[in-house]
Write a structure and sequence with these properties.
The chain is α/β, with parallel strands linked by helices. Among the domains are: about 70 residues, Orthogonal Bundle (Arc Repressor Mutant, subunit A), CATH 1.10.10.10; about 100 residues, 3-Layer(aba) Sandwich (D-Maltodextrin-Binding Protein, domain 2). Helices cover about 45% and strands about 20% of the residues. Strands 3, 4, 5, 6, 9, 10 and 11 form a seven-stranded mixed β-sheet that branches. It has a two-stranded antiparallel ribbon with strand order 1-2. Helix 1 crosses helix 2 and helix 1 crosses helix 4. It is globular, with a radius of gyration of 22 Å. The two termini are about 40 Å apart. The mean pLDDT is about 90.
């Protein structure tokens, strides 16, 4: 990678994170190295690309104009690097993978370790986000693939990996806590705690299919906050079993009747258009043991 490529990668990471220190940590560079790279790029452009403040950095208008051009250039260079490796049937290069929090916490370390042990010339670059973030990242070329529960973006291919049951969670002394299963309609009478749009796709899909509007009491930022409020008997929630495996809260968890689940899988661009590296990673994930 030449100096210009390094600068462009740094520019994109600083723009994404809005913080030079965080960008340096993410890219394994020193803070001064990142600052020098941005300064060099600004000298080359002949203008300021970032506003600096105590809160972090934000793109200037010139920086915003440059962002899609730099992103496109980096995407093309990334594709070229992978295509060059594929010419010799060499599985190598950087694989940019998107993931969501609960999947990352349970599986990503094992997946990365297993894959890179088999293919030591591969570096995996991991990005966490919502389903929508991951779909958009794949669609615009910032990610090579990503773990999701479903795909709403038709041009993307989706390889199912395993089913994750959806459960009703509540405080242990809740009126429904002794039930062995719960019809969805029984939840109508109880206040629901959910996550912000973009993180609640699986739950909303269940209610849409049932043509049912829940009585939402709180909409919170993340699943930890939801579980915390539920444990204090502030309401009930629908949550995938996978999220509960590392929960530190005292909760009752009851399956729906009929049972509901989300299907976790790997989304990619149309698989015939992907590189050898992406296809190899998809094949590896299909053989991975996701049992828990």
């Amino acid at each position: 990678m030449n100096n210009s490529q390094i600068r462009y990668e740094i520019f994109l990471k600083v723009a994404e994170l809005g913080n030079i220190t965080l960008a340096a940590d993410a890219l394994s560079y020193t803070q001064s190295g990142v600052s020098h790279a941005i300064a060099a790029m600004e000298r080359e452009a002949g203008c300021t690309l970032f506003h600096r403040s105590k809160a972090g950095v934000t793109l200037t208008e010139n920086g915003k104009k440059l962002l899609p051009l730099v992103q496109d250039l980096v995407n093309k260079q990334h594709s070229l690097d992978q295509a060059m490796d594929a010419l010799s049937n060499r599985v190598a290069g950087t694989l940019r993978v998107g993931s969501f929090t609960s999947f990352t916490a349970l599986w990503m370390a094992k997946l990365i370790q297993g894959f890179t042990q088999n293919f030591p010339d591969v570096k995996i670059e991991l990005t966490n986000g919502t389903y929508r973030d991951i779909e958009n990242g794949i669609s615009d070329g910032r990610l090579d693939c990503g773990f999701l529960s479903s795909v709403e973006n038709d041009p993307l291919d989706f390889t199912p990996l395993f089913d994750d049951p959806m459960l009703v969670i509540m405080a242990p002394d809740h009126a429904l806590a002794k039930r062995k299963s719960l019809p969805l309609q029984d939840l109508k009478r109880y206040p629901l705690i959910s996550q912000f749009q973009g993180s609640d796709h699986d739950v909303q899909q269940i209610f849409r299919r049932a043509k049912m509007r829940p009585k939402t009491k709180y909409i919170l930022d993340d699943d930890i906050s939801v579980m915390g409020m539920v444990s204090q008997d502030e309401g009930i929630a629908l949550m995938p079993e996978m999220m509960l495996t590392t929960a530190a809260f005292d909760l009752a968890a009851i399956p729906l009747k009929p049972q509901q689940h989300r299907t976790i899988g790997l989304a990619t661009p149309p698989i015939k258009e992907t590189t050898l590296l992406v296809r190899t990673f998809v094949a590896f994930c299909k053989t991975f043991d996701f049992g828990y």
